[in-house]
Amino acid sequence: MPISKTGFQKLRFICRIVTGCLWLLLSGCLPATPYLTPTELVPTISHPSTATASVTSPTSTITPAPKVLTFQAFPVAEGETLALLNARVIDGTGAPAKLDWTILLQGSRILAAGSNVEIPTGARIVDLAGQTLLPGMFDMHGHLYAYDGRNMSMESIAYPRLYLAGGVTTIFTAGDLDPREGIRVRESIASGKLIGPQILTAGPYFSGGEAPAWMLSAQTSEQMYALYEAWNDKIDGVKFYTGIPEDQFIDILNAAHADGLFVTGHLESISGLRAIELGIDGIEHGLFSMSEFFPKTKSGSFKTQYCAISQLDVTSPEVTAIVEAIIKHGTYIDPTIVVFQPELPDFVPLIDDWEKYLDPDSVMPLRRELRRMVQPECLQEALDKQAQFVKAVYDRGGLIVVGTDPVIPILLPGYGLHRELQNLVAAGLSPLEAIKAATLNAAIATRLDSEKGTIVAGKIADLVVVDGNPDEDITAIGNTSLVFKYGIPYLPDALRQSVEGQIGKDK
After folding, report:
1. CA dihedral 82, 52, 130, 470 (to 10 degrees)
2. Number of CB atoms found within 10 A of residue 498's CB
3. Number of helical H runs and strand E runs in the chain
4. pTM: predicted TM-score of the whole model, two decimal places
5. How far apart are CA 432 and CA 441, in angstroms?
6. How far apart are CA 137 and CA 452, in angstroms?
7. Tell me, what DSSP letter sits at residue 97?
8. Domains detected in the chain
9. How many Cβ atoms from other residues are within 10 Å of residue 269's Cβ?
10. For residue 428, what is the enclosing H or E element?
């Protein structure tokens, strides 16, 4: 029935009250107070104040905050300046943490960063005492689809939120199950309709005639080029897959570079050394993507591959030649050690209660799939060789990046990146070097280093706040308490809670 103007106004008022209550419940956020301790979920946030951090009374008028996004830690008014104080700042360059820096944010950008930054009158103070601030991280193999033991499905809501909750503010999808859906998710996040990291899409896999049935098919060179031309103006990078013939590889590689796209690959039909010499920008999975070191097989079992790699001498002329080529051509290496680890008999899940993110009907099928995947022979030795290879590339000045490939959802987005950083440290990188691999190195690989990857004035305000000192103990990287994406602060716990029971759920 029609509502009178007065009735409508009353209804709108009630809705505003309800919306405000829901926001408080979802965000876990109370009005800002100087009495919060540094270890609480939300850092100390004072109202707009004078230039000294100790003064918390409002002294200026700020444009009313816009409608608060769900999961936002606190509303940020248009044009408002945030002053982040008292954190240990890891700037992403590999340099030691800074203890006396102030970071100013305004809109989507870092306004200033350094030890002599004056806090403007009216800035909102965010006290990060006892915590560490670092650049937003990249997942360079950040798929948006999952196999739950029954089916593969796009995870357009759960995966982006989990990435962001883990401090991952940018992903490269490295191949999409549904390329059109990948584009839709990218655009929906960019427009604010969905919440998640910035997405760099790879679109379809470029794999040639032997691709799995669900990949877009291209049997001939003409078909492959037509496939590329159908997507080249929609994607951010190209992902070659195992069956790509060399002539098609060369055609698409040259076309992609002419269009300003970066190119990576999970190789097999072409050797690692050949792909590097032809000019590929990156190689996924390290040694596990270099078919000169293992026999090709269509059996579906990886045991032969793992056992061959386990016998490699990383100091041999063959491996040394690949390392030299990587350095010469500036090829980045994405080891994805974590994606192989669930196949180990003694694999420890990333978190104890990981199954809570699955649709309950997916739990048993996925458990069966994980049991089937276990490789009791050769894999640990092969991963040890992968770690040695990563260290050899790194020691020569090569570009190591961080990716996770979380198709099997025991590798939960965000959490998987934390484990991969631990893997890099176990391989011999320092915690600061591992963090650099996930920040500046990845920004260089994606050609975004003028915009992201380090904490520098003028760059995009993608930042992560963690409890503890990850530069001393890399496991602290998982203690995310606040994540800034384009200057908007999000609550990791709220993001994660919102997708419990969702992975594998029928859409």
Report:
1. 50
2. 17
3. 15, 20
4. 0.87
5. 12
6. 9
7. P
8. 137-455 (3.20.20.140)
9. 21
10. none
